[in-house]
Each structure stands twice: as structure tokens, then as C-alpha cells.
Amino acid sequence: MAIRHLLLIAALTAAPSVAAQSKAPAAAPNTVKMDLAAADAIRSMLDGTFDEGHIAMLQALGHQQAVAATCTGFEIDPKAFSNEFDLVYDDSSGKPRSLDSSQRTELERKATLALGMAFGAQIAISANDHQAFCQAASEERSSGKAAHLIWAK
Predict the structure, then answer these.
(1) Which of 8, 22, 82, 104 could form a Cys-Cys staple with 99, CB 3.0–4.6 A?
(2) Cβ-count burial of 92 within 10 angstroms (0-12 exposed, 13-18 middle, 19+ buried)?
(3) For residues 8 and 12, what is the distance between their CA atoms, to the nearest angstrom?
């Protein structure tokens, strides 16, 4: 009986109070809100021209370019950038799209605008805590798990 009593006391003192449980969850950091807002704006602007894979790729390129522009020790490999950006010419299954010159121009315009939006958003995000931004990029690069890697090795 004494052990049950001690376990109950331990459980009650470890559990958050009812008042603490009713509080709203902590708000997302501003940098997360900024990144989500930029992603929403990019999706809206692209208006179905690209699938989620294309959007993620353009955001990854914009992020890596922002890192290279603001953090020491990072450079863009032009060939890797070109290879990745050229994915905009493929459909969601990886096959080349059939485009006339005006369609190609419109596709490039939208992809370039999305890339610029992603780059600008990442520059703004880096300004919140530049040291943490660059540290996170270093960890990202060393993890070997970065998607659409265009940083020079």
C-alpha cells in the first residue's frame, strides 16, 4: 500500500497541472512562420505549374544560394546548380515536358521568380540569427542528407 501511495504521489507531481494542460501550445518561432509563409506564396504564384517536388527543389536551391551569399565557407557549384534547375523542364515522373518556346519562357519565368522568392525569404530568415543559420547550414552539409545539393564540395 505504501508503494502505491508513493507511486501515486510521484505520478501526480510529475504530471502537469490542469492549468498548465489548458494553456495553448507555444507559438512557432518567427523563422518557421516566415519559411511557411514564403512556401505558401511560392505555391500560390506557381499556380499548379510545378508539383511539390519541383517546389521543394526550388526552395532548396534558394536556401543554398542564400547560405552561400551570407555564410563563409560555402560556394555554389554552377554545374550542380544547372543540373538541379533543369529539373523544371521535366514532368512529375521525370520525363521531359513537351513545351513550345512561349511555354518554355513562361516556365522559366515562374521557376526563376520562385527561386528568387525562396532566396529572399532565406536571406530574411538568416537575419534573425545569422550565426545559427550558418551553423545549421554547416550541419546540413555535413549530414550528407541535403536534397538537391548545389554547394561546391
Answers:
(1) 104
(2) exposed
(3) 6
Instruction: Compute the half-sphere exposure of residue 123: CA atoms within 13 Å on the CB side of its CA.
Output: 12
**Residue 64: Cβ within 10 Å count:** 28
CA distances from 35 to 18, 45, 78, 94, 121 (A): 33, 15, 25, 27, 7
**92-100 long-range contacts, Cβ below 8 Å, gap at least 24?**
92/51, 92/53, 92/54
Q: Which residues contact 37 (CB under 8 A, 6 or more apart)?
A: 121
Query: What does the alpha-carbon distance between residue 59 and residue 116 come to, in Å, rounded to a whole number?
Result: 9
The 10s digit of each residue's pLDDT in 93-149 is 899 999 999 999 999 999 999 999 999 999 999 999 999 999 999 999 999 887 788
Report residue 19: phi and psi, to 5°: -65, -40
pLDDT tens column, 23-75? 556 667 888 899 999 999 999 998 888 999 999 999 999 999 999 999 999 99
Gap between the Cα atoms of 110 and 105, Å rounded: 9
